[in-house]
Design goal:
This protein has helices at about 5-20, 25-45, 85-95; strands at about 50, 60-65, 70, 80-85. With about 100 residues, it is of the alpha+beta class. Strand 2 (about 60-65) and strand 3 form a beta hairpin.
């Protein structure tokens, strides 16, 4: 399994412990772990705003298809990198604030 799927499973398990009555003594620890995970993602968005493109895996082009040709990746426009989703959300929120 990939790292992102494992992280998603871990975060779901921590949220289940934090916000349900499955293990009441572990709820404060799970809430702290969830806050630490969120803080880590915010730090990653701040210091490392770019990530590898998941479609082309950072190469900028995609091979294959019916005739086996090479073409630019449509997701990253051939650059091989993308902004993280948290960075995109942050920029949209900041852009919308001054338009009133």
């Amino acid at each position: 399994m990939s790292r992102s799927i494992l992280t998603l499973i871990l975060a779901t398990a921590v949220m289940a412990v934090a916000f349900t009555d499955l293990a009441p003594p572990l709820a404060p620890l799970a809430t702290f772990a969830l806050a630490l995970l969120a803080l880590g993602y915010v730090a990653a968005c701040r210091w490392f705003p770019l990530r590898r493109c998941p479609a082309c895996k950072g190469s900028g082009h995609i091979t294959g298809g019916l005739l086996g040709g090479i073409r630019y990746c449509g997701l990253c426009r051939g650059e091989g990198i993308q902004l993280r989703r948290g960075v995109v959300l942050w920029r949209r929120l900041r852009r919308g604030r001054g338009r009133r």
